[in-house]
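Continuing the batch. This is chain 6 of the set; chains 1 through 5 are on the previous pages. Same settings as before, nothing changed between runs. Recording input and output for traceability.
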Amino acid sequence: MAKGILGKKLGMTQIFTPQGEVIPVTVVEAGSSVVLQNKTVESDGYNAVQLGFGAIIKERKVTKPMKGHFAKAGAKPVKFIRELRLPSAPEYKVGDIIGVDVFSEGEMVDVTGNTKGKGFAGGIKRHHFACGPMGHGSKSHREPGTIGPRMSGGGGKVFKGKKLPGRMGGTQVTVQRLKVARVDAERNLILIKGAVPGPKGSFIIIRNTVKPKK
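Output for chain 6:
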């Protein structure tokens, strides 16, 4: 059954198995996601559930339409709202609370988040280009090479999407097939083996993996 939950990345640590094996894990606070809206094929053309998560924000910082949206669900305004397309969406009811116990230890999940922003970066750091000659006479140690000035009939053209220096990071990324190492329902924590995208304190989406039989 397709399922998902919202959470906040708290950081990384390590745990030990009964056999003494060390497992690096990411600690995610992922309890109490409230169902704000339920979309179905009959009413919206597709099945989806809208979840809200995070600290309660002040009402003066919420627009009137969003105030009504939260009030209809009987929930307080929260910061992080995302819609998950789930075939089982009709089973959820507006106002339901989804806890971390929706997942169990050993399950494989896909985690979506925004990567850390690195600012402006050159081609070597951003795209792993090779360096130019490092000798004293070289004029291009870290510059990108030719980008096709003689193409397109002699006029020259740089095609869209060409790998060049620019802003690095801050993009949405999904890491697939991460294993749930431990679930702590009492403290609303889920421990995921390995690293997940984003800095500490960032919001993420956890879904059961789309590749269960890889």
